[in-house]
Every structure is written in structure tokens, then in C-alpha cells.
Design a protein that fits this description.
The complex is a heterodimer of chains A (321) and B (537). Chain A has 321 residues and is mostly helical. Chain A is built from 18 helices and two strands. Chain A has a two-stranded antiparallel sheet with strand order 1-2. In chain A, 25% of the residues are buried. Chain B has 537 residues and is of the alpha/beta class. The chains are: A mainly alpha (321), B alpha/beta (537).
């Protein structure tokens, strides 16, 4: 979903500059072929992003699947009242924020560091191979990763624990004790996404003027100095944009990762908004309640994006709009 | 120039149309494939009706058998029921372990099959409350075979507020779980099959200490998988045997209408969990049980010969069918053999356990269905003795041979290819009917060649001292609302209590119960007590 939306938006931006130059009606007529091309992405957004939004109405209804959106009774904010009164609500919001914040702290810098390291590699074949190997985990589904993690970290017969016990230590409850589980959860996330995340930073790195490096070499700068004074400032705006986008997702959490990796023993951490919505919405058929949750989640996400964008602009960065 | 523009415009239009119709066309496609495969459609005059029937997809189709929507039996039904009645049958697959989710989606889109079914009472209550089910009170009158086969008691389970909203399938044997133990390990240690909880415990300790199977650190004396109500194994027979005597009122109050919600509040339940907690501390149960969410690890551990004993559904195909767990175990470990045991005794020396109501899944016809009459006709056709017998046992000589008057399954690859999901097709029946409990047990044994005695003994164990859930004549509203959340919470409390440090066991369990009551447990209890009092008036 995310990838497709970024590609379509890049298409739109590439056509806009020409439109901006000539705003008159004749200008529009002249470029009408481009406008026709634009129709497609616009239709996509209307159909798949805006039309389904009417469904959000059921957050304010006593929704019955047989009466539908048009026939169900309107009950105002009753669902939200019920939601905010549930003790599980606060737990899942806390867990979502907790997991996402930890991900932000640990997983966000990982691709940057990785990209910097890759950038320093001078042997091309090694760099290419390393990059490919680092991307690979991105293409493995969480279901498979869940199985791998189980095989690696379970208490009885897990690869890692077998090693630990054979060295004479006690086995470590990686998946059955919540704090250990958190480590495994974060580690798996970094392993899965860091390599893929480097792509965008590596692209940004190629945009840095080579002359700056040459000049600094003349001035006697070493590798670390160059990294700190040229490379990092060079990709600063990319980092900020990525950070804002991450902050926008602070309340959104994928379903598969916590669902597949979680279990009853670590529910204190693994029960998050998406899994809760699945249980309340699909499994107990409380669709209104689940939608209210989703709406609330979207609202908080919006606040985070706007706030972080404003802060970024204050610090002199471009922001995302 | 002009033509160029139009090409661009029409290209865009075509692409747009593709996007708009994407949803619709995929539906047409699937309908198209099913109709083309049923090439034998009759050409009788009059409009042909398409009857859509839900079918469970367990993902267990053998290679070459065809999917659950189009195989030997769907074609057989089309030929024997569809064609003569000018009805085209279309089977709609629903994954077994997501049946409720998928059913809700189907119902919400207004596109549900004409015949659906579910075991989940909450879902049924919701549908009735929202007026989404067809009232079958009148229609059932047109189905003499069905009425005769199911009988009044079974049908009464489908009556809500005086109306027949569901058609419950008949359950011929009400058993649930039995316990199994490795005979070869017992023999090696010179121990008898345990008959009391204490003996069971001592035996598990002996397994752990003496490791009769020489499996080392992989040894699991007593195994079960994650507790979620859908796995075939659980420790609940053990835990429930600790429950103390209750008054009738308490029995009604603390039970749940849905027997997958653990009944934490029953007096003595905590002692049962403490027993498991102790076993966990001593390394007698699987430390990873909570991670095994789909029960596959359990099956693999048993098949590899790591497991001393376990409690699971009696006479279950996952264990005893050809090439399944027990067959694999025999290949892996020479001489390995499980026998049935029933050791979990209560204070009176009895071995109580919950058993099923005399019904299986509830068959429903959505109100949106335009073919309720045909749907009932289909069920009535299925209820004829010879049809039901064929659907359940296959064709003589091809899928079974008669032995002492009971069908014995043929287990060649060829037979398996055309006979693998028949219990899911014969939806009006859960188990086979041969006239008496003994005969039914006998017949079930024949389904598992090589494991006849084990299958029969596990069923007898599972029925011994069995009790059914108490039943009210109306749904408990609080249970509908909080059911799933409570089940989740109860499971969490149980799992955490089992692995708690001994000195924290009590506080973890008690705190859990307090929370359980707070998030809806109390409301359910109060409503059940009121309902009980109203019933006794």
C-alpha cells in the first residue's frame, strides 16, 4: 500500500511543474494529455482511499451487518464512550506507542548507519553482494519469520538455547518472558527492515557533491570527519522527511508482526491496536467499536504528522509540505 | 493530432474501467470456473437455480484430489441432487480456523451462501438479534426426512424465542477429550497405566527422571499446546478434575454457554492450575506450550517420540488417520505405542469432564437468501438414510468394505484422493449413526484401521462421567458482548498462572480473576444467576 502510494505521488509531482508555469485555460488544454494521464492516479485515490471512508460512519452507529451503513441506527459518540471506558483500550494504546517508539529509537537509525558503512566500501562486488544480502529479509513474510524465530529462540530445542545450555548456562526465556520478548521483537524488526531502508539513504548519498570530499581531503579531513561534516549534513533533509513519516505512523502498527510473534505470556506487550481491532471487530463482530478505535488511531496519527512537520520547519528543514 | 488525443483518452478510459470493475470481475471469474467444471448441468426446462453452500476448507486436500469446492463429492452431489432438481450447487470455501471471521464478512456483504453454519453461539445470537436469519419454523415442515433424522431434542437446540432459527447438526457421540500415554515407556519402567491423579504425577516424574525413550533434553512428560479452544489438545480435563462439588445454582452461574471459555471461577479451579504450575516447575510439561499456537509443534513432538502423555480429542483423525501423527511415530521410533488412560480423579474417585451437547454445528439460512426452500430441500435430501450413509462412508468397494456390518475405511492413496473431507460435506451430522452408543463407538473404531481399540477406548474414556453445559432458553447478553474478551483474558490468566514462580502463583491468579470480573466477568455472572432464578420460579 505504502509503496504504491509513493510511486503514484511521485508521478503527480513530476507533472506539476509544467502545469504551474502556465496556469491559464489554454495551458490546461495544451497539456491535456498529461491531465488524462493524471486521471488514473486520481481515480485510484478516489476509489480506494476516499470512497471507502464512508465506512467510517459506522463508528457513530449501532451498526448491524444486515442493515448496512444506511440502515443502522445513529448513536453519536456512544462507541467512543464505551471504548474509552475499557481498560484494554489504554493497554493497547500504550503497547502500540511503546513498540513503535522503541522501533523508532532502535530501528530508525539502523539503515542510516548501514548506509554510511556501505557508502565507505570501495570494493564494488563486495558492496553489491552485501547490499543484496541485507535486502533479502525484507521479502520474507512475517509468518515465515515467526516460524524462524520460534525455531531459533524457543526454550525447548531452540537453536540459540541449545547453544546456551550446551555451554553450561541456563536457558533464556526469549519468547516467554516479556522483556526478553521485546528484545527479540525489536531485533527481528531491525533485521527485517534495515537493509531495505538503506536504499533511500544510498540514493541521497549519491547526490552529494564529490568536490566537497576532495576539498576536505585537501584540508586534511579523515574518514570520520568527512562522514560527520559532509555525508550526514548532506542527507539531513532525507532523514528528517523519513522521521516525519515514521512519526505519522506512531499510532499505526502492522498486524502481522505482533500477531505472529506474540503469545499469551507476553500479551502485556504484544496486544496492540491492530490485534485488538481484529479481536473486537472481526472475531466478536463489534464492528462499530473497532471502527471507532481505527478512527481514533488515525486522528492521533494526523496530529503527530502535523506537529512533527511544524517542528521540522521551525528547525529550518523543508518538511513534507 | 486529433486521433492521437482520442487514443490517449480512450486508453485512460479503458484503464479506468479496468480499475472500477476489478472487484466485480473477480467474482464473475470464480463463478465462471465453478460452472464450467460442472459440465453435467441438466437441460430441463425452467430456470436453473444456483444454491450456494458453505464448506470448511481445512487445507488438507491430498495431492490430486481437487479443492473442497470441486472434487469427487461435489460432483456426486451435483449429479444426484442438483441435476434432477435443476439446481446448480456452488460450494463456498471457508477456512476452518477463521470460520467466524469469514462468515461475518460474507454476511456483511449480503453475499452469504444460502447455507452457512457455525459452532460459535455468540455469532448466532448476534445474527438473531440483528434479524439476519431466515425463520425456518414453517419451512422445516416440508422436510420430513430431516425432521425424522434429527429428532425433536436436537431441533429444540435451534429454537430461539419460540422460532426455529437454526438447524443443529446431530452429534451421535458427545465425547471430547481423553488422555493418552506411551505404553512402551510404561513397560520399560514396569509401571501400570495410571488410574489416579497421584499415580499420573508419579509416572510423569518417573518419565522425567529415567527417560525411558532416551530422548534427552527434548523429553516432554506431559504435553499440550497453546490454550485457545481450537487446538486438539489441552490440559482442561486435568484442571477440571480439581473442581469441587457445586450447588446447581453455582453450576449454572459459573459455567459458560460457550465451552471454550475456561471456567476460572469454579471452586477448586485454582488448585488445578497450581498442580500444573508445580508440574511446570519440575519440568514435567512443555515449557514452550504457549508458543505453539496452531498445535503443529505438539503433533511434531508426539510424532518424534518426545512426549510421554497428553490429553487430546478422542479418536481424532489428526492423530490416528493414515500417515498422521501415530503412523509417523511408528516409523520414527520402533515399538512406540500410545494407550488410552483416564487418570484424573476428583474427590469422589470419579473422572468428570465436559462433553458436548447432542448437537454439532448450527446450520443457518441467511435472511438475504432467495433460495431458502431449495436449501431445506438439499438438507432433506441429505437426511435420507442411504444418501447420508454414502456421503459419510463413500462407495462400497472404493472407499470402504463392510466388516461385521460396519464400514471399514480403505486406506489406499486412490481411496484417499476421493475421500478426505466427507465429514465436512455431510453437514447435518456430526459422527455416524448406527442405532446405539455402543454401536456408534464400534463403527468409529473402524474408521481408524490399525488403531481400532485405541479409538474406541479413548471415546469410552471421554464419555465416562461426562456432563454437558447448563443451558438457558435464551442467550445471555453479557456473554455475547464480553465473550471473546473474557475468553482471551481467562486464557492469559491460566497461562501466566501455570508458569508463575510458586510464591507468586496465588497473587497472579487472584489479581487476574479480579480483572476478569471487572472487564465483564461479573456482569456475565450476575446475568446468569438472575436467569437461573427466573428459570426456577
Amino acid at each position: 500500500m505504502e509503496h504504491s502510494s509513493t510511486t503514484t505521488s511521485s508521478k503527480t509531482t513530476s507533472t506539476t511543474p509544467r502545469v504551474v508555469k502556465r496556469r491559464s485555460a489554454t495551458g490546461i488544454w495544451k497539456d491535456h494529455q498529461l491531465y488524462f494521464l493524471l486521471l488514473l492516479p486520481i481515480a485510484y485515490f478516489i476509489l480506494f482511499k476516499y470512497v471507502p471512508m464512508y465506512g467510517a460512519a459506522i463508528a457513530f452507529q449501532d451498526y448491524s451487518i444486515f442493515k448496512g451503513v444506511t440502515g443502522s441506527e445513529w448513536i453519536g459518540f456512544e462507541n467512543f464512550r464505551e471504548l474509552f471506558a475499557m481498560s484494554q483500550f489504554y493497554e493497547v494504546v500504550r503497547n502500540t506507542l511503546l513498540l513503535n517508539l522503541l522501533d523508532l529509537v532502535f530501528s530508525f537509525p539502523a539503515p542510516i548507519i548501514l548506509a554510511l558503512l556501505l557508502n565507505e566500501l570501495r570494493v564494488m562486488w563486495f558492496k553489491k553482494t552485501a547490499q543484496t544480502l541485507l535486502y533479502l529479509p525484507h521479502f520474507i513474510s512475517w509468518i515465515i519469520i515467526g516460524g524462524l524465530v520460534y525455531q531459533m529462540f524457543s526454550n525447548n530445542g531452540g537453536l540459540v538455547n541449545n547453544l546456551i545450555t550446551s555451554l553450561g548456562f541456563h536457558s533464556v526465556p526469549f519468547l516467554t518472558e516479556k522483556n526478553h520478548w521485546l528484545l527479540v521483537y525489536l531485533g527481528t524488526g531491525i533485521w527485517q527492515s534495515a537493509g531495505w531502508g538503506t536504499i533511500i539513504y544510498l540514493a541521497a548519498l549519491t547526490g552529494i557533491n564529490k568536490e566537497l570530499y576532495e576539498a576536505s581531503e585537501v584540508d586534511g579531513a579523515g574518514r570520520l570527519k568527512k562522514m560527520w561534516h559532509i555525508t550526514l549534513p548532506g542527507i539531513r533533509s532525507t532523514i528528517v522527511v523519513m522521521l516525519i513519516m515514521q512519526l505519522g505512523h506512531i499510532m499505526t502498527i502492522g498486524f502481522e508482526r505482533p500477531f505472529v510473534m506474540g503469545n499469551d505470556l507476553v500479551k502485556d506487550y504484544s496486544e496492540v491496536i491492530s490485534t485488538f481491532v481484529y479481536k473486537a471487530g472481526l472475531q466478536s463482530a463489534q464492528f462499530s467499536l473497532a471502527t471507532a478505535m481505527g478512527l481514533f488511531q488515525a486522528l492521533v496519527g494526523l496530529v503527530f504528522v502535523i506537529a512533527s512537520n511544524a517542528i521540522a520547519k521551525k528547525f529550518g528543514e523543508q518538511g513534507i509540505w | 493530432m486529433q486521433t492521437k488525443k482520442w487514443i490517449a483518452a480512450s486508453a485512460a478510459a479503458v484503464l479506468l474501467a479496468g480499475v472500477v470493475s476489478a472487484c466485480g470481475s473477480s467474482k464473475d471469474d470464480s463463478a465462471g470456473t465453478t460452472s464450467s467444471t460442472e459440465g453435467t448441468a441438466s437441460n430441463t426446462s425452467g430456470k436453473q437455480v444456483t444454491l450456494k453452500v458453505e464448506v470448511f476448507d481445512r487445507g488438507n486436500a491430498p495431492a490430486g484430489a481437487g479443492p473442497v469446492t470441486n472434487n469427487y463429492w461435489t460432483q456426486w452431489i451435483q449429479k444426484n441432487f442438483g441435476d434432477p432438481n435443476n439446481i446448480k450447487l456452488e460450494f463456498v470455501p471457508v477456512p476452518r480456523n477463521q470460520e467466524v471471521d469469514k462468515l461475518n464478512v460474507l454476511m456483511a456483504t449480503g453475499d452469504a451462501p444460502d447455507i452457512v453454519f457455525t459452532y460459535d453461539m455468540n455469532t448466532i445470537y448476534n445474527y438473531i438479534k440483528d434479524d439476519g436469519l431466515a425463520d425456518l419454523t414453517q419451512l422445516i415442515g416440508n422436510a420430513p426426512n430431516l425432521k425424522k433424522y434429527l429428532g425433536d431434542e436436537v431441533l429444540s437446540y435451534g429454537v430461539f424465542s419460540g422460532k426455529q432459527y437454526t438447524i443443529p447438526a446431530k452429534r451421535t457421540l458427545q465425547f471430547t477429550q481423553s488422555s493418552y500415554i506411551r505404553k512402551d515407556w510404561l513397560d520399560k519402567l514396569g509401571l501400570p497405566v495410571p488410574t489416579t491423579t497421584q499415580q499420573f504425577y508419579d509416572t510423569m516424574k518417573a518419565f522425567k527422571e529415567k527417560d525411558p525413550g532416551q530422548v534427552g533434553s527434548k523429553l516432554i512428560p506431559y504435553d499440550f499446546s497453546a490454550i485457545n479452544g481450537s487446538n486438539i489438545t489441552s490440559p482442561f480435563v486435568l484442571v477440571n478434575s480439581f473442581v469441587k462439588k457445586m450447588s446447581e445454582e453455582e453450576f449454572f452461574t459459573y459455567a459458560s454457554s460457550n465451552n471454550t471459555i475456561p471456567e476460572l471461577l469454579k471452586p477448586g479451579y485454582k488448585d488445578g492450575l497450581q498442580f500444573l504450575n508445580n508440574m511446570y516447575r519440575e519440568g514435567l510439561i512443555n515449557p514452550d506450550f504457549a508458543l505453539d499456537k496452531d498445535g503443529k509443534q505438539f503433533e511434531s513432538d508426539v510424532a518424534n517420540g518426545y512426549v510421554g502423555a497428553f490429553t487430546a480429542l478422542a479418536a481424532h483423525a489428526n492423530l490416528m488417520a493414515p500417515d498422521k501423527v501415530f503412523d509417523t511415530l511408528k516409523q520414527n521410533v520402533a515399538g512406540a505405542e500410545y494407550v488410552a488412560m483416564d487418570p484424573f480423579t476428583d474427590a469422589d474417585g470419579k473422572t468428570p469432564k465436559g462433553i458436548y451437547d447432542p448437537i454439532g454445528a448450527h446450520i443457518l439460512i441467511p435472511k438475504t437468501s432467495k433460495h431458502a426452500a431449495e436449501a431445506i430441500k438439499y438438507l432433506d435430501w441429505m437426511a435420507q438414510a442411504d444418501v447420508l450413509f454414502t456421503l459419510q462412508n463413500g462407495i462400497e468397494g472404493q472407499h470402504y468394505t463392510l466388516e461385521n456390518g460396519f464400514p471399514k475405511a480403505i486406506t489406499t492413496d486412490e481411496a484417499k484422493k476421493t475421500f478426505y473431507n466427507n465429514s465436512d460435506i455431510a453437514i447435518i451430522s456430526n459422527g455416524k449413526e448406527f442405532g446405539s452408543t455402543d454401536k456408534n463407538i464400534e463403527a468409529t473404531g473402524y474408521q481408524f484401521p490399525g488403531y481400532e481399540e485405541l479409538a474406541k477406548q479413548t471415546i469410552r474414556n471421554a464419555l465416562k462421567d461426562g456432563y454437558t453445559m447448563p443451558r438457558f432458553d435464551h442467550p445471555i447478553d453479557a456473554e455475547i458482548k464480553y465473550g471473546t474478551t473474557l475468553k482471551d483474558k481467562a486464557t492469559e490468566i491460566i497461562v501466566k498462572s501455570i508458569i508463575a514462580k510458586p510464591d507468586q502463583f496465588s497473587s497472579i491468579f487472584d489479581a487476574g480473576v479480579q480483572e476478569y470480573l471487572k472487564i465483564g466477568g461479573q456482569a456475565v455472572q450476575d446475568e446468569r444467576r438472575t436467569a437461573y432464578e427466573a428459570m426456577k420460579k
